[in-house]
Design brief:
DNA-binding, alpha/beta, 6-stranded mixed sheet, homodimer, about 325 residues
DNA sequence: ACGGACTGCGCAAACGATTGCATTCAATTA
DNA sequence: TAATTGAATGCAATCGTTTGCGCAGTCCGT
């Protein structure tokens, strides 16, 4: 700008005004300046702009904290956030917590320092203190949780309808003739685990089945599934179906029961939760609850941007629930 | 800082120096200021710092451009970049090009404006002009390519050893008794496609097999694989093995030949490339070339940071090749 | 007692933009 | 003719830091 001003024999202020199309600069001068700027491909220094506007205008950088990156669901969510954000003129600063509380705190501080306009976060598994989040809110940085929300904080959030998703899935198992349905869930201190379990329980009740504690296990990965499933199948009264908290676990079950000589879905039905890459790769293909990560991501970004731009009030915590969809494939019988 | 200065009755300059531990401020004053700052949890405004230093110091933001996010290999690379970058004090601005040239150009401009210290990029499939990249380099923003590199530009890059990876995989197929090996590759305008083909060709030569053009097809996704594979298997002289350019395609082949009643690996061997989630989910599990995306990402970040910090010269294009590893599983016979 | 060296600190100019207010000059009005 | 008005532009402060330079004051040696 200084150069332009010098070349054209005007003041920097005039250049600034001309470039922002201020009517207080005469038409000819304005156009001359604009053209000159274009020809010498001038573009404004965002840093300086931000510094000048730091009091009034937030930046256009959204911080995103992900527990891990190589993960279908989180990738989908990130994808959704990216789409929504970029189409509305925001960009993303992405960091992964590695499921570590310490790292999460560091990241929050770094993002605060880097003046993000808001943060979209899914907590690390071992996060049990929330001061770092509260710290952000009091610093005026809006926060939106996804997937793993923080029940202690009344913050905006978007989650998947774990309860209904599981309920429908288990109902489907029952309707296709299953009577003893095992449930492999995650440890109950996470909301999502609890909600899915409740969905399972209520589906059983709805159809008059009783809940057998022996059929409920904590297991949310393939290795564990392969370890504990044989014993399940050797019970005197073995399960005729499995509901797993994610596809990975379901695949573990599938591989075990196939290896043991059972036929899927006729001897044993299996249902997962995610509908990621894996679901269409196994044989038979996996019946599973579509988690719609992209949609979750979009909603989260939408809320955050709403908060930033003031169309949503920061006092009211916006809570959105994304509906799931049951995708029936080969590991369950058809109705 | 101004507040601190006022409260403690010193000048802002003194505060600044005290906070940066300058020896030109007396010990007592320095400590008093530091403590006061800590107690009132002051932290410096990065924007202002950056503005001040914009001439000399680059920012610590690395721009990352990904063609897509919901993709095992790209997720792994992003993961690698994140790990390396964050451990060295950099953060990531991530954008996805959606395989679109237009979007890629937009992103480059936006990142330039946002003053990233460098960019790590894999080109969109339809990118054929490179002015936007050259534009960045002339603007002094270092560039590192990964996966899909730009042969026209002599830029730093890190790629996987596609040639040797494929060569080894095809050799393995031959050594386990396969004689007619089909090759499903991507369109040859991408370097990676060409290198993999060359590896295939040379492996055949090495073992004295002749290359049959009928066995070479352009096919890099599951749908296409499912469409064209039946015809391949109906040839009078059908292939006894398939090498596919990625796991997804290999899975497509697997599902078709199983459905047609062939046994894998005895009737037909199959080998993929990636070693992503899918590889351990299908039945039998997929023999594939481990692509080590995380390592690629780390190397890319390492180069970029080297360039930024001046340990690597911008004049010399650093080219790194990440070794692959053949993971032998159930879709090929064992040696 | 005076020059030099050193210590500890403040002034003010930068970084690159924006913007309220003052200024200039010409045209219009009384 | 003098005053009023309006348009077009410039001045200078500001955003929050950093930093070269200069200015006091103290201490020492001669």
């Amino acid at each position: 700008m200084k150069d332009i001003a010098r070349e054209l024999g005007v003041s920097v202020a005039t250049v600034s005004r001309a470039l922002s199309d201020s009517p207080s600069i005469s038409r000819e001068r304005r156009q001359a300046i604009q053209q000159f700027a274009r020809e010498h491909n001038y573009f404004p220094n965002v840093i300086a702009e931000q510094l000048r506007h730091s009091r009034r205008n937030p930046s256009r950088a959204i911080g995103v904290i992900v527990p891990e990156l190589v993960h279908y669901y989180f990738s989908s969510i990130l994808d959704g956030i990216e789409s929504e954000a970029s189409s509305r003129g925001y960009h993303l600063i992405v960091a992964k917590s590695n499921e570590s509380y310490e790292r999460e705190v560091q990241i929050c501080e770094a993002m605060l320092k880097n003046k993000v306009c808001g943060i979209i976060v899914s907590q690390a598994k071992d996060t049990e203190r929330y001061d770092h989040f509260e710290h952000l809110t009091t610093a005026g940085v809006p926060l939106v949780f996804y997937d793993r929300i923080c029940p202690a904080l009344n913050a905006s959030r978007v989650v998947v309808d774990d309860y209904m998703g599981t309920m429908n899935a288990v109902s489907h198992l029952i309707e296709t003739g299953c009577k003893r349905i095992a449930f492999y869930g995650a440890s109950m201190n996470m909301m999502i685990a609890k909600n899915r379990f409740n969905g399972y329980r209520d589906a059983l009740y709805k159809y008059g089945l009783t809940l057998d504690e022996d059929l409920v296990r904590i297991c949310d990965n393939r290795a564990d599934a392969e370890r504990i499933t044989p014993a399940m199948m050797h019970m005197e009264n073995r399960p005729d179906a499995f509901f797993a908290v994610n596809d990975e676990t379901a695949i573990g079950i599938l591989s075990v029961v196939k290896r043991m000589g059972y036929t899927v879905p006729d001897d044993v039905s299996i249902c997962g939760f995610t509908n990621g890459f894996r679901a269409t790769v196994c044989d038979p293909m996996l019946t599973t609850v579509e988690q719609r990560g992209t949609q979750v991501g979009k909603e989260a970004a939408d809320i955050l941007i709403g908060l930033v731009e003031g169309t949503l009030s920061p006092d009211h915590a916006e809570k959105r629930i994304v509906k799931t969809r049951l995708v029936i494939r080969g590991t369950t019988r058809h109705p």
